[in-house]
Task: structure prediction
Amino acid sequence: MNLTLLLRTGSAPVIWALLFSPQLLRAESSLCQTGRKQSPVDIVAPVRQEMAALDFQYRQSPLRIANDGHTARVRIAKGSRLLIGKESYTLQQFHFHTPGGDRIAGEEFPMAAHLLHKSQSGQLLALVVLFRQGAENAALAALWPRIPARAGGDHTMADAKADPAALLPPGHAYYRYEGSLTASPCTEGVTWLVMKQPLTVSTEQLAYWRTRFADNIRAPQKLQGRVVQESW
Result:
């Protein structure tokens, strides 16, 4: 996640402050070095407890995909949402990172999908699906050939669908922690959910991705006293 994403999804006061206050922008950027709630993290010693179930109400929509020079980004039409208890988060877009960023007990994953959500109050929520190397992934097999060859704006493909539900693992147990954007200005206050069950991505699919994109994730950051919650 980066400043472009913040400008597209953030609240109006934050957007105007960043656009017209270079001092604030520099202060926000310094969070990358000084922040105490930064993402991604290595999830160690999580605290298992009762947490609200994830109710995914994702819908297919016409595929709207972009190669932004760093990753493949798919924007989602209105109507897909994630319910967590009484809270509702609208799915905005998803994109991919190599390697996975968030680790579990020191394990580094070769790839992750980040599904970005926003509540009506403006709370940002990042849902992370990790991938282990293994069998070919059907959702990626359908998506990879659609990635535009050159960096640029969105391409809408009426003959193809974006299906965010296809990127979800069968099990919906998760970890939760409070974090940040993973690129400057590293703004904190973002809720992170990391799915406990990884999906698989084949060697060939990873190799194809790397013909298009360089590795694009930040190294894990210190927890700085944060507690990672783990659902049953």
In short: The radius of gyration is 17 Å.
